[in-house]
C-alpha cells in the first residue's frame, strides 16, 4: 500500500493548501498515534470532563468512518437514496470482514431527511475489500454524476446552521475543495424543481398563456395554482452563491467539484478573503434622470470555514499526530480574525456569518470569535446566536469561556499578563507569536457569551472534531483597526456615510432583499496580532499584494502604464477615493481592442487592434503574479443570430430569458459553447467586468456547437448540464416522450441504434416518434408511470437524431451509472456505429462533424482550465486504486473530488462517439 504524504494544516493552514505535490497514502494503522504536546495541551485545557477523557483520545486514534451525503436539491437523488436502502444495505449486511459481519451504513440522526449516512467500515476497506465492489462502484458513479457527495460528517454541520432560504445571496469565503459550497448551492436551489414545474404546468393549462395543455383544472384550482406559483423568475431561484478560494489551483478544484451540480447561480472567485473586494451592483439613479450612486453587494449569509491547523482531523489525516505543534495555530490566528471581520463587514444587517474550523485549539476558535466581535464594536453590533436547540440530535459541547495558550516552545500560559512578565524577565524567546487577543482575559468592549459557540468532538458520535459559531449582525458596523485600544474613538464618520448607512438598512420584513448600500470598510492594517506572516498570508502573497505594496505600486503605475496592472482590489471605501481608477484594474486577457498592455511585458507593449490569439493550456498567458489570465465573461445580445436560431429550432418559450446567455471569449462571439447564468450573476459579472475582480467560473454549459448534416438543423445542441434549466421551455416539436423502463434500457445499452429503414421498429413506444422527428437535438422526457415497467421519477435526457440513427447524448460513464442505478446491471454497451464503421473517409472531411477544436481565432477555455488544473495537480491516482486522490491539504471534502474526476474525458467520449456516428452515416 502506498503512503499519503503529510498535510498538517487544513486548507491553507501550515503545511496544507498547496496541492500540486504528488503524495501518497499512509496506512492508518501504521502511524503511531501519539504527540506529547498535543495531548498535554488538550488535557490541560480540560476540553472534556475527566470521565470522558479516555473515550475522547480513543476515538481520535481510531480511523474515521466512511460518510456520504445525497444531493438534497435534485429530485433524482431521492431514488438513489432509496436504492441504498433497498439494494446495498441488505448486500452490505451480509458481508463479513475480519471474521465479523459488517455494520451497514446508518442515516445520521441529526441530518434532515436521512440525506447523510455514515458507516463504521473505513473507506480504505470499502475501496479494496472485494465484497464491497458493487457498493463502491455505486458510490463512485453516483458521486461522478452529482447525486452523492463524499463528505466528512462534521463538515456538514456549518451549512445546516446557516439557515439558508432559497433566493438568498450567500458567500463562501474559503470554499475549496467545495464540500460545504456544494451543500450551500443545494440550499440556494431548494425547492426549485417543484416551483418551476408548477409554473410551467400553470402556464400550459392556462388558456391564452401557452399552447398544449396537458391537464384540465377547475376555475378554483386554477386560482389556487396561480397563488402558489412563484412568478418572480418563473420558479427559478433568484439566489446566488459566490464561492471563493485564495489558492488558484484549489479554486479550480472547487470549480471541478461544483460543476457536477450545474448551477447557473454560482460564481467562483479567487481572492484573499482577508481583503475580499467589494462587488459592485449595477448603479441606480438617486433621482430620476439625476446622478447615479454606486451600489455594492451585501450577503444574507456568509460561511467563513477558515484555514486552520486542522488538528480535529487526526482520524483522517494521520500526520496530525506526527506534525502537530502549537505554532500552527498561533500563526493562523491573525488571518482567521481578518477573514471573520471581513465577513461581518460584507454581511447584511440581520444576516448570519458561520465561522468554523476543524481545529480544537481555542486560539483558532473562541479567541478569534471574541476578537472579531470586539473589532466590530461588541455584542451590541454582532451577537452569537444560541444554537443549542438547533439540530437537537447532534451531540456537542459549549464553547470555552476560559483557556490557556501554548507557546511555540510548548509552555502553557494562563494570561497575557503572565506572558508580559516573562518577557520583561527573560526576553521574548519563544513568545513572539503570542498576542493579548489570543487570551480570554484580553481587554474587550464587553464580555462575549462564548459558551454559545459549538464544539463537536470525535467520541461524541464517532466523527472528526469541529468548531462552529453562528454570528448575527444586529446593526451596521464600523470596524476598529487591529490592535487599536478599545477606548479609541470610532473612526470619523462623514454625513455621506451616515446617509448611506441608513440607506443600507434592509427593507422591513424583506429578509431576501439582495441589495444594500455600500459596506463600511476599514482596510486591513499591519498585523499586530502576531509576529510574522501567517501561513495563509504567505499562501496568498502571489495572489494579492499587501496594502503597502499596492500603494508603492500605485505610484509606480502612475508613472508608467497602468492599463493591465493587477493590484490588490479595493474595498468599497478605497473604490470611492479613487473612483476614476477603475479602468486600470483590468486583469482579463486578452484586453479589449486598443487597450494598452502591461509595460513590464515587453512582448505586448503595443496596443492591439484586436485580442491576442487564444492559447492552449500549454501556452497560457500569465499575469505578473504568475496566474493565468481568465477569459472574460461576455453576454450575448438577445438578437444575435445564433441565439435566434436556437429559440426557433427548439421552439423555446419566449418566457425563457434571452439575455442571460454568455460566452467566454473576448469577442463575445458564440463560437463553441454558450453558457447560461442567473440574472443576478449576470448583473454582477457585467457591473464588475473591468474591476479586476478575479471571477474564475460562472455559468452552466447550455449549448455546444457542432456541424450538422443539413441546413435546417440547428448547430447548437443542448448540453446535458443545461437541460434541467431549459427542458420545461422547449416546445413539443423537439420533445420525445418515453414511459417504459424497457425502452430507456435500449437507449442506454445501445449507442446509435438505427432508425431508418425498419430500424425504428426496434425502439418500441418511441420508434415512430423518433423516425419522424427532424434531425438534430431533442429532449427525451422520461415520464413517471405505473407498474413494473414504469418509472417512479421523471427524467430528462438529451437525444440526437441523425440521418440514420439515434443516440442519447450521454457520456459512457453516465450510461453505466444509470444502468446500474435503474436496472442493477453492469451490461456492456453496444456501439452500433461500429457495425458499419469502416474508417475510410477522414472524419474531418465528413460533412457532419463535431466542432471539437475551435478555429484559432476564438476559444472558450474555462472548462479546459478547470479540468486541466485538476488533472495536473490533483487527480493523481495511485496505481491500482480506484479514484484515489493523494493531494495534501484538501480539507474534509476531498472524496467527492476524487470520484468526480474526468469530465473532460467523458465529454470527449460523447464527441468521439458522435464523430464515429457521422462516419457511420456516411458509409
Ligand atoms: C478548510 S479549507 C476549506 C474547506 C471548504 N470550506 C470545504 O468545505 O470544502 C480552507 C480553504 O481556505 C483557503 N484559504 C487559505 N487562506 C485563505 C485566504 N486568506 N482567503 C481565502 N481562502 C483562503 C485554502 O486554500 C483552503 O482551500
UniProtKB/TrEMBL annotation:
GO molecular function, one term: tRNA (cytidine-5-)-methyltransferase activity
Record: active site: 358
Ranges of residues in domain SAM-dependent MTase RsmB/NOP-type: 56-474
Subcellular location: Nucleus
Biased composition (Acidic residues): 854-865, 895-911
The entry's keywords: Methyltransferase, Nucleus, RNA-binding, S-adenosyl-L-methionine, Transferase, tRNA processing, tRNA-binding
Segments of this protein annotated with the region Disordered: 1-30, 532-623, 831-865, 877-923
Any one cellular-component term (Gene Ontology): cytoplasm
Binding site for S-adenosyl-L-methionine: 174-180, 245, 272, 305
Ranges annotated as biased composition (Basic and acidic residues): 914-923
Stretches with biased composition (Polar residues): 540-549
Compositional bias segments (type: Gly residues): 12-21
Pfam families, alphabetized: Methyltr_RsmB-F, Pre-PUA_NSUN2, PUA_NSUN2
Family listed: Belongs to the class I-like SAM-binding methyltransferase superfamily. RsmB/NOP family.
Protein name: SAM-dependent MTase RsmB/NOP-type domain-containing protein
Source species of the chain: Alectoria fallacina
Amino acid at each position: 500500500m502506498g503512503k499519503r504524504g503529510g498535510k498538517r494544516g487544513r486548507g491553507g493552514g501550515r503545511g496544507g493548501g498547496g496541492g500540486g505535490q504528488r503524495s501518497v497514502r499512509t496506512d492508518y494503522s501504521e502511524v503511531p498515534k501519539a504527540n506529547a504536546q498535543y495531548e498535554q495541551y488538550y488535557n490541560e485545557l480540560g476540553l472534556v470532563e475527566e470521565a470522558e477523557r479516555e473515550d475522547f483520545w480513543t476515538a481520535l486514534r481510531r480511523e474515521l468512518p466512511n460518510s456520504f451525503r445525497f444531493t438534497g436539491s435534485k429530485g433524482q437523488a431521492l431514488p438513489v437514496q432509496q436504492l441504498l436502502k433497498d439494494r446495498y444495505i441488505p448486500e452490505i449486511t451480509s458481508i463479513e470482514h475480519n471474521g465479523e459481519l459488517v455494520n451497514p451504513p446508518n442515516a445520521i440522526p441529526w441530518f434532515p431527511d436521512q440525506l447523510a449516512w455514515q458507516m463504521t467500515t473505513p473507506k480504505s476497506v470499502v475501496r479494496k475489500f472485494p465484497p464491497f465492489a458493487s457498493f463502491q462502484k455505486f458510490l463512485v458513479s453516483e458521486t461522478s454524476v452529482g447525486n452523492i457527495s463524499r463528505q466528512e460528517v462534521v463538515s456538514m454541520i456549518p451549512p445546516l446552521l446557516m439557515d439558508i432560504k432559497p433566493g438568498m445571496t450567500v458567500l463562501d469565503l474559503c470554499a475549496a475543495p467545495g464540500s460545504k459550497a456544494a451543500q450551500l448551492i443545494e440550499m440556494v436551489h431548494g425547492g426549485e424543481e417543484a416551483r418551476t414545474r408548477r409554473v410551467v404546468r400553470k402556464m400550459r393549462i392556462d388558456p391564452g398563456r401557452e399552447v398544449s395543455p396537458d391537464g384540465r383544472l377547475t376555475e378554483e384550482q386554477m386560482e389556487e395554482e396561480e397563488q402558489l406559483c412563484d412568478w418572480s423568475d418563473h420558479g427559478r431561484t433568484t439566489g446566488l452563491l459566490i464561492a471563493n478560494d485564495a489558492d488558484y489551483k484549489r479554486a479550480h478544484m472547487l470549480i471541478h467539484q461544483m460543476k457536477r451540480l450545474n448551477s447557473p447561480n454560482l460564481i467562483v472567485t479567487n481572492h484573499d478573503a482577508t481583503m475580499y473586494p467589494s462587488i459592485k451592483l449595477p448603479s441606480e439613479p438617486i433621482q430620476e434622470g439625476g446622478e447615479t450612486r454606486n451600489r455594492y453587494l451585501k450577503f444574507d449569509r456568509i460561511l467563513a470555514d477558515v484555514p486552520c491547523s486542522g488538528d480535529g482531523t487526526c482520524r483522517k489525516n494521520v500526520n496530525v499526530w506526527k506534525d502537530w505543534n502549537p505554532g500552527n495555530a498561533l500563526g493562523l490566528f491573525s488571518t482567521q480574525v481578518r477573514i471573520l471581520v471581513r465577513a461581518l463587514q460584507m454581511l447584511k444587517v440581520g444576516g448570519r456569518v458561520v465561522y468554523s474550523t476543524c481545529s480544537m485549539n481555542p486560539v483558532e476558535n473562541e479567541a478569534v470569535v471574541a476578537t472579531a466581535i470586539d473589532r466590530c464594536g461588541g455584542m451590541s453590533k454582532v451577537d452569537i446566536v444560541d444554537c443549542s436547540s438547533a439540530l437537537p440530535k447532534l451531540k456537542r459541547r459549549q464553547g470555552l469561556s476560559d483557556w490557556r495558550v501554548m507557546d511555540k516552545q510548548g509552555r502553557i500560559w494562563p494570561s497575557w499578563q503572565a506572558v508580559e512578565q516573562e518577557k520583561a524577565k527573560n526576553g521574548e524567546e519563544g513568545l513572539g507569536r503570542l498576542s493579548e487577543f489570543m487570551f480570554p482575559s484580553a481587554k474587550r468592549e464587553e464580555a462575549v457569551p462564548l459558551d454559545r459557540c459549538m464544539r463537536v468532538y470525535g467520541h461524541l458520535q464517532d466523527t472528526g472534531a469541529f468548531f462552529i459559531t453562528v454570528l448575527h449582525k444586529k446593526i451596521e458596523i464600523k470596524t476598529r483597526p487591529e490592535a487599536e485600544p478599545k477606548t479609541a474613538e470610532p473612526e470619523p464618520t462623514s454625513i455621506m456615510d451616515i446617509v448611506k448607512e441608513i440607506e443600507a438598512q434592509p427593507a422591513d420584513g424583506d429578509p431576501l432583499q439582495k441589495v444594500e448600500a455600500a459596506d463600511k470598510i476599514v482596510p486591513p492594517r499591519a498585523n499586530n496580532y502576531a509576529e510574522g506572516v501567517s501561513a495563509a498570508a504567505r499562501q496568498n502573497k502571489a495572489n494579492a499584494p499587501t496594502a503597502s505594496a499596492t500603494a508603492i505600486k500605485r505610484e509606480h503605475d502612475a508613472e508608467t502604464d497602468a492599463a493591465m496592472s493587477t493590484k490588490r482590489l479595493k474595498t468599497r471605501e478605497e473604490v470611492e477615493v479613487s473612483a476614476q481608477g477603475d479602468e486600470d484594474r483590468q486583469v482579463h486577457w486578452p484586453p479589449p481592442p486598443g487597450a494598452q498592455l502591461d509595460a513590464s511585458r515587453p512582448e505586448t507593449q503595443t496596443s492591439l487592434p484586436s485580442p491576442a490569439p487564444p492559447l492552449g493550456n500549454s501556452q497560457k498567458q500569465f499575469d505578473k503574479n504568475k496566474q493565468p489570465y481568465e477569459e472574460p465573461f461576455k453576454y450575448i445580445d438577445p438578437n444575435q443570430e445564433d441565439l435566434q436560431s436556437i429559440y426557433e429550432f427548439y421552439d423555446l418559450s419566449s418566457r425563457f430569458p434571452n439575455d442571460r446567455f454568455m460566452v467566454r471569449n473576448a469577442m463575445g462571439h458564440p463560437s463553441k459553447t454558450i453558457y447560461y447564468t442567473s440574472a443576478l450573476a449576470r448583473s454582477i459579472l457585467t457591473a464588475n467586468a473591468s474591476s479586476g475582480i478575479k471571477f474564475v467560473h460562472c455559468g452552466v454549459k447550455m449549448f455546444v456547437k457542432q456541424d450538422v448534416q443539413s441546413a435546417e438543423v440547428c448547430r447548437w445542441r443542448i448540453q446535458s448540464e443545461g437541460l434541467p434549466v431549459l427542458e420545461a421551455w422547449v416546445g413539443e416539436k423537439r420533445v420525445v416522450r418515453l414511459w417504459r423502463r424497457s425502452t430507456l434500457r435500449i437507449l442506454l445499452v445501445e449507442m446509435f441504434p438505427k432508425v431508418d429503414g425498419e430500424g425504428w421498429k426496434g425502439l418500441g413506444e418511441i420508434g415512430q416518434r423518433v423516425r419522424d422527428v427532424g434531425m438534430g437535438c431533442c429532449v427525451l422526457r422520461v415520464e413517471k408511470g405505473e407498474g413494473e415497467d414504469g418509472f417512479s421519477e421523471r427524467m430528462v435526457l438529451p437525444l440526437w437524431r441523425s440521418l440514420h440513427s439515434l443516440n442519447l447524448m450521454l457520456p459512457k460513464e453516465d450510461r453505466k451509472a444509470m444502468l446500474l442505478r435503474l436496472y442493477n446491471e453492469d451490461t456492456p454497451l453496444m456501439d452500433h456505429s461500429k457495425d458499419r464503421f469502416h474508417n475510410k473517409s477522414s472524419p474531418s472531411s465528413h460533412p457532419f462533424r463535431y466542432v471539437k477544436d475551435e478555429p484559432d481565432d476564438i476559444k472558450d477555455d474555462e472548462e479546459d482550465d478547470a479540468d486541466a488544473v485538476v488533472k495536473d495537480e490533483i487527480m493523481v491516482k495511485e496505481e491500482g486504486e480506484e479514484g484515489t486522490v493523494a493531494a495534501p491539504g484538501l480539507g474534509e471534502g476531498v472524496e467527492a473530488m476524487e470520484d468526480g474526476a474526468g469530465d473532460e474525458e467523458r465529454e470527449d467520449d460523447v464527441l468521439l462517439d458522435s464523430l464515429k456516428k457521422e462516419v457511420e452515416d456516411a458509409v
